[in-house]
Design brief:
There is one protein chain. By secondary structure, this protein is mostly beta strands. It has 2 domains: 177 residues, Immunoglobulin-like (Sandwich), CATH 2.60.40; 153 residues, Immunoglobulin-like, CATH 2.60.40.
Length: 348
């Protein structure tokens, strides 16, 4: 059944873009205002999308640096950026039914995120909402057909570098169309409604030594450990927010039993990244709870953390470091957000 649903989604998007050429789709007729617009005189408005791609490095006390979102992998894949622009009368609550104009634009990610385009519309008071995400091999990362419930297009795989997305909103008034500048320019700031977290094990050397001794089974010479033989599994404990409402600007639904697999990615002689994920969050601080298991090539559990509370902030990258590879099933590794010791909790 899942394969049929997934195939349906693939067919739904297969005509969106093939070579990432700029495309334009216009859909009008969502409300009575649309019929009036057909007979009225349109005016030109310039939409400028400005993306907040900065990630602020925070050590728990102060900002210690900034970095930008890394799109090198997306550029190498030839991915596209998708922009969904929807216009609503300012006098009504934005809903799919009240949408009076929709534009979908696609362009190669190698051109960057920031983008400007002209739009024709009858002068008036409007609410403009823009959603932007990544399209890989013709498949958008998110199903944004309905701004009420935006979800991932496929399985929750985790470790998806294309799972970040942006949203922006602006209002247009009649006075904007009478400005001396022609066309009127509306600037929309695009921000991420997601938080990212990543878990880094700082006991890589101890893990390799322990596994080597187990493999040698008492022999004098220790055996070489192939880290590719190990699988990391992230288990969300309790609920994981997985549905975002653009209209309410917050998660509106969640799922239980969510998990995803990863691999041990060596960073240096002592550390390895175990995996990362993106989670929908509101504008306030929030958190998810996870457990991390390590399995060998025989699918035997060799390490399992207890529940880890991961603090999240919108547009931030939470980096957690600890001895995850050495965790036993009875270990109690818990993240205390108020802990000021050497745990090394970093937002960026």
């Amino acid at each position: 059944m899942y394969e049929l649903i997934n195939m349906k989604r693939v067919l739904q998007y297969i005509f969106i873009e093939a070579i990432c050429l700029l495309s334009l789709f216009l859909s009008v007729g969502c409300s009575k205002e649309a019929a009036v617009m057909d007979d009225a005189e349109n005016a030109l408005v310039r939409i400028e999308l400005k993306f907040d791609t900065a990630e602020y490095v925070y050590d728990g006390k102060e900002v210690i640096g900034t970095s930008s979102a890394d799109i090198a992998g997306n550029v190498a894949n030839g991915d596209c950026v998708r922009y969904i622009v929807r216009v609503y009368p300012a006098s009504k609550i934005p809903t799919r039914k009240n949408c009076i104009k929709e534009i979908v634009l696609n362009r190669n990610i190698s051109d960057g995120y920031e983008f400007g385009f002209d739009m024709e519309i009858v002068p008036g008071n409007y609410d403009i909402m823009v959603w932007s995400d990544i399209v890989t091999n013709g498949m958008p990362t998110y199903d944004a057909e309905d701004f009420t419930e935006i979800v991932l297009s496929g399985n929750h795989d985790g470790n998806n570098a294309s799972a970040y997305a942006y949203r922006g909103r602006a209002t247009v008034s009649s006075s904007d169309f009478s400005a001396e500048e022609s066309p009127a320019t509306i600037e929309i700031t695009m921000q991420r409604p997601l938080a990212k977290f990543e878990m880094v094990a700082n006991d890589l050397l101890q893990f390799i030594e322990r596994e080597s001794e187990k493999m040698s089974d008492g022999e004098t010479d220790a055996l070489t450990v192939n880290l590719d033989d190990y699988t990391v599994v992230f288990y969300y404990v309790g609920f994981m927010p997985d549905t975002y409402s653009f209209y309410k600007d917050r998660p509106v639904d969640s799922s239980t039993g969510v998990c995803f697999e990863s691999k041990i990615n060596v960073l240096n002689d002592y550390e390895a990244s175990l995996g990362f994920d993106y989670v929908f969050v509101n504008e306030k601080e929030s958190a998810v709870t996870v457990r991390v298991g390590i399995y060998d090539k025989k699918n035997e559990l060799v390490a399992l953390t207890s529940s880890i509370k991961v603090p999240l902030m919108r547009g931030h990258h939470t980096l957690l470091r600890n001895a995850y590879l050495s965790a036993k099933k009875t270990d109690g590794i818990i993240i205390d957000t108020g802990y000021n010791g050497n745990f090394n909790l970093i937002f960026k």
